[in-house]
Amino acid sequence: MRPAPVAGRHLDDGHRLTRYADRVAVRCHRCDAPGWVLADWRPYQWTARFRCGNCSLVLNSAADDWAGRVHYSGRRPCGYCGHQWVCACVVGKAGQPAPTAGAGLCPQCGRSSEVSVSGQRVRDGEANDPHFGLPLLLVESTRAGLLWAYNEAHLQALHDYVVSPLRERAGVSNGSMFSRLPGWMKLGRNRTMMRKTIERLMLKARHDQQS
Description:
- The protein is α+β, with helices and mostly antiparallel strands and about 210 residues long.
- About 15% of the residues lie in helices and about 35% in strands.
- The protein is built from 2 helices and 13 strands; from the N terminus they run ββββββββββββαβα.
- α1 packs antiparallel against α2.
- About 25% of the residues are buried.
């Protein structure tokens, strides 16, 4: 049994970032207008959709649409000395022609070989929505790092964590949202800065909902 929350303490109940992924405030990658990605979780996959109110761009997970970054990588033995492995990495973006090969420098002989590459969508560790890779709307740079959130509920959860002088974990794994926060967000010296940043983003979220 997990203990009940105590006043002045924050209890990590183990929920993941995906709790807030059903409604994500974003900017259209084509015209930069604000909008919403709406998604439903039906075990075991998300069904998501986006329609820009400004330029009418439509994205749908059923069509496998993607607007974010794509990481292309591959490896092969060196074409000159046979050393294993020569690796190549290329970063691209959806909508651009997908590369089929990249140059890889051999660490043994120093010569370059052409390496076939395949793509993988970049979803984690970025200020982008997890469904289409669109840039998030609720983002602000701080002196310690980039603070972002999917929606107002996500901001409220971060706010509750930040303002609590004591933080508890009750038998949860390292997969919880709070356990995966970057280290600078957990430091006491950044508490005031983070609180003010989150409160500014909460005002922005409310303003965008009303407009």
